[in-house]
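Look at one record.

>
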Amino acid sequence: MSNISATIANVEADINTIVAQTTTLDNSIKAFPLTGGTLAEALAVHNNAVTLGNSIDKGTTDVKATTPTPFSDADGAAILTLGKTLEPTITSVLTGFVVKKAAFQALPLGGIPALFKRDLSNLSASTTAFMDALIVAALASIVANLTALKARADAAFAVAIAVYA
């Protein structure tokens, strides 16, 4: 681990990348048909999930390296706004995984649902670590909002993961 510090601009850029990659994942899930999907389409969903997870992990690293902390009120508010903007897309991704489970199970190559369960578990863990880092770095004035956002994400991930259990 290096001693290089990050800035709030790095964190905001990370969140913008996470937003874009969450949208990409959402679009790949929506594009997967309810019947007749291909292994290539399913692997695209998987690859998009892995890419998103890596970006969330980078965001966590950057939040932890950001100086100074806690974030200012303005920076914290900007991050909270980005998080709230992302929430409907995360919900769409997780709903998509639930709705398309039968379509993923119908693929001729088994193991796709197990792969997606792992992807969901990894994304959940990454999201939790990211949100925890943001909560630690935030001023008290936004901690309750970030904690509520994290709780909603945790609950939504739990539902999707349970469907794949």
